[in-house]
Amino acid sequence: MSGALIDLWGWSHALAQFSLWLGSLPLEAGNWVALQTGAAAPGPLTGLIGFITGEGLTNFVAVIVAINILLLWATLLHLLIVMWIERKMYSRLQDRRGIMLGLGSSDFLRRILGPIPLIGRPFRRPSHLGTGFLQTVADGVKLFQKEVITPTNADKWMFHVAPVMIASSTLFLFVAIPWSDGFWLMGSMDKGVPVNPWGILVILGAFSIAPLGILIAGWASNNKYTLLGGMRAAAQLMSYEIPLVLSIIALVVLSGSLDPFELVRQQSVPLTYALGPFGRVTVPFLPNWYIFNPVLWIAFVVLFITVIAEAERIPFDIPEAEAELVEGWTTEYSGMRFGLVFGFKWLRAIAGAALIAILFLGGWSGPVFATVWAPNLAAPGTLYGIPLLPQEFWFTLKIYVIFVVFVWIGWSVPRIRIDQILNLGWKQLIPLSIFNILLATLARGFGWF
Amino acid sequence: MAEMWINMGPQHPMTHGLWNLRIKVDGETIVDAEPEIGYLHRGYEKIMEVREFQKNVVLTDRLCYVASITWSHCYCLACEAAMDIDVPERAKYLRVVSNELQRIASHLMWLAAYGPDLGLLTALLWALRERELFLDLLQLITGARMNQNYPRIGGVRNDAPPDFDKYCSKVIAHFRNKLKEHEAVFEQSKLFQARTVGVGRLTRAQALDWGVTGPNLRACGASIDLRKLDPYDAYPALSFAPAVEKEGDSYARYKVRVEEMKTSCDLILEALKKLPAGPYRSKPPRRCEGEGFRRTEDSRGEALFYVIGDGDDRPYRVKIRSPVFSNIAAAPIMMRGNKVADVVAIMGSIDVCVGEMDK
To answer: Whose CA is closest to B210, among B293, B64, B323, B354?
Structure first.
């Protein structure tokens, strides 16, 4: 039980209106001057002002503002945090502290602020005692400064298009992923609640664009390592798309919806099992998450493995496989081109974790205990819940927890071989998810669960 | 896809040094392989001819930076055979202790390299963490972490520090505990088994044909350990059984090395318990006329030094036999028919040290 903190469309609409109003101020002034100098009554610029502050342009600018807010939210905030979590987490697994660069590590700040009595304290300590968050920023800045090298014999056009294709298709994933009841880009309001009937389908579609870009990148670099890496990536991602979709089909059969909002609404009620002719049983204190469903937990396992493979993380990071293929299909990229193709894997991991959270872990619905109950004055005798923490917090928390599990798995096992990966995909995950669809269909048909 | 040659090296994460493995692949399957070495050739045998016997110990230290003591030890044994001198009993035991400490450190370095080869970077940090303790012990007894320059012709450079046995037993007790963690992350992992079991198989006959020695040979079912077969120093007085596995694949090579670390722990404790009192070094002659020949069980296989003196204070000729040189020759046999990803699983399990291979 929690409410949304961010109303993306409302905010961007207000922001667009405000900025357009600011932009129209000079025109208003011009209009006023013209009226003073004896122009006709509405003034010569009224039409232009009407156009600028009108509904059409405001909506257009609101779309751009909303897209930009989401872009910054996903890349600048979550990408950096997730990279930081990964580096800190695996460092602890390896018995070390990992990155510790902080503001106090800046030589410039140490020299300027260090001598100041009170403020300078953190800058007089040993330099690398920070949280390390600035390291990811520094790495990004470093990549920006580096030269972009194009191999002589590369297919230049394709070589430079591929990273853009990969990065943009990954950002496209975030179009359809809602972060709360109010923080969504794709959808519409219907009877006071947001709906997006094809949301999950759009996410799945966006997931499957990147393999094409990877294949192009691997081929266009004109390098044997990138070629092998690209082929591996294509084989792996294509064979894992199928169980990804199949596992979700089982969920759709039981839940009857591809709408992320609807799925989350279904999961925010107390856990209830329909036991066919024996009626319904409600389990107290547990939410109705699909992971608790006796049929769908198989789909959860399949989806979890598949998402790790889709994000190209260990043990499924054979396209990169730095031990044998140097850097796999990213070998020839340098500078920010490399930054794009390297960073996109974390973005895919975030998107995958968000998908898992929405489908199986209740999305942005928070627990009941995080709510303060007050008497509802409008309807005496009932209670009114005031959420302590907004929906975005719970959703982000779930994504991070899932990501930590990714990291945990990824840094405690070796990577497996291409033939073993394909065997696992085709011979185990796909039959398992088809079997799960069968179970889900039977359960649906007989009215169980 | 047509067959193509891929260069894995000389600059490549797989090589752990400076050599080149050319593989011919058909898609992902390896059709043929061809090791190319010589990038790190420094002319050791020639350099040693122009330096005095005693001063060559420093050079032999640098043959393999991961296992310095075993190499200078082998050289000293060969020189002692050429000069026909005896080594004090205490020195023999100290040599065994330092050798086995070095063997554990070397095997841990191998373990640390094998993890990242398979994509398990955590194993690198863990193995280096344990290796640090053994480097500390080596520092205690020799004064250095790397290139210890410890064995001398006619003994060892210095005696063990007081309470060295206590430090050793403490570290070894700790290490035996920690080794369980390593076993949990390696052999109890299904993915590690999937990567190594049945990969890069070498039969006993093939291994003997190609001159494969050391842990790689013992992984093929041949119980050939020079510490038992052609014992030197204090090894005849110590009781141990060399670790042997039957399979001959990467997993067996891993198992043999882990077992060897445990054996070395026992050997160190036993040697320290039996450590006799007395001098630790005898005075060798400056000049030497004659031939000396000695082979020892290096941490990578059979190390051999053949020293000829012509009455001068410098050797007339030195011949070094490097185990990795022969082991790597068997790489194509192990490689054929496997996948590209198995290159690291196989070459990593052979334990390559380019310094000694190229001499």
So the answer is: B323
Q: Quick one: CATH architecture of B52-323?
A: Orthogonal Bundle (1.10)
Among candidate residues B228, B210, B222, B257, the one with its CA nearest the CA of residue B351: B257
Closest CA to A433 of A238, A295, A235: A295
Q: Hey, what are A417's tokens?
A: 């071989």
Distance, in Å, from the CA atom of B279 to the CA atom of B293, rounded to the nearest integer, reads: 25
Longest dimension (CA), chain A: 85
pLDDT in tens, A104-139: 777 787 788 878 888 777 777 766 777 888 888 888
CB count in 10 Å sphere of residue B286: 11
Low-confidence ranges of chain B (pLDDT < 50): none
What are A421's two structure tokens? 């990966």
User: Residue A343 contacts by C-beta under 8 Å, 6 or more apart in sequence?
Assistant: A75, A79, A83, A167
Q: Per DSSP, what are the bridge partners of residue B315? A: B309
Q: Which residue of A has its CA nearest to B195?
A: A416
A317 backbone dihedrals φ, ψ, rounded to 5°: -95, 35
Chain B residues with CB inside 8 Å of A231's CB? Answer: 1
* Chain B residue numbers touching A228 (CB-CB < 8 A): 6, 25, 28, 340
* pLDDT for the residue numbered A1: 44
**In the structure encoding, which two tokens stand for residue B206, read together?**
């093939």
Task: Quote the minimal CA–CA distance from B261 to chain A in Å.
Answer: 22
What single letter denotes the amino acid at residue A299? A
* Cα–Cα distance, B69 to A301 (Å, whole number): 51
Task: Determine contact, residues A203/A187, Cβ cutoff 8 Å.
Answer: no
**What interface predicted TM-score (ipTM) does this complex get?**
0.84
The secondary element (H helix, E strand) that includes residue B295 is strand B289-298
Which residue type is seen at A9? W
Alpha-carbon distances of A75 from A12, A137, A308, A343, A353, rounded to whole Å? 18, 12, 20, 9, 15
Distance of alpha carbon A415 from alpha carbon A404, whole angstroms:
18
Nearest to B60 by CA among B352, B291, B319: B319
Contact B118 A94 (CB under 8 A): no
For chain B, say whether A427 makes contact (Cβ under 8 Å). no
Report domain extents, chain A. Answer: 99-138, 146-446
Among A417, A420, A421, A424, the strongest candidate for a mutation testing the B interface, having the largest count of B CBs within 10 A, is A417
Contacts of A246 (CB under 8 A, 6+ apart): A302, A430, A433, A434, A436, A437
Residues on B contacting A at a C-beta cutoff of 8 Å: 1, 4, 6, 8, 12-14, 25, 28, 115-122, 124-126, 129, 185, 189, 191-192, 194-195, 339-344
Running DSSP on this structure, what letter comes out for residue A275?
A: B
Q: For residue B323, give the amino acid letter.
A: P
Task: Give me the residues of A, 143-202, that contact B with CB < 8 A.
Answer: none
Report the 3 state secondary structure along B185-228. HCCCCHHHHHHHCCCCCCCHHHHHHCCCCCHHHHCCCCCCCHHH
pLDDT-based confidence at residue A371 (cuts at 50, 70, 90)? low
Rg (CA), chain B: 20
* A101 vs A245, residue with greater confidence: A245
- The token pair that represents B158 in the structure block: 């210095």
Q: Which residue has the higher pLDDT, A350 or A190?
A: A350
Cβ pair A316, A128 in contact under 8 A: no
Beta carbons of B297 and B226 less than 8 angstroms apart: yes
For residue B121, which residues of chain A lie inside 8 Å, CB to CB?
90, 94, 411
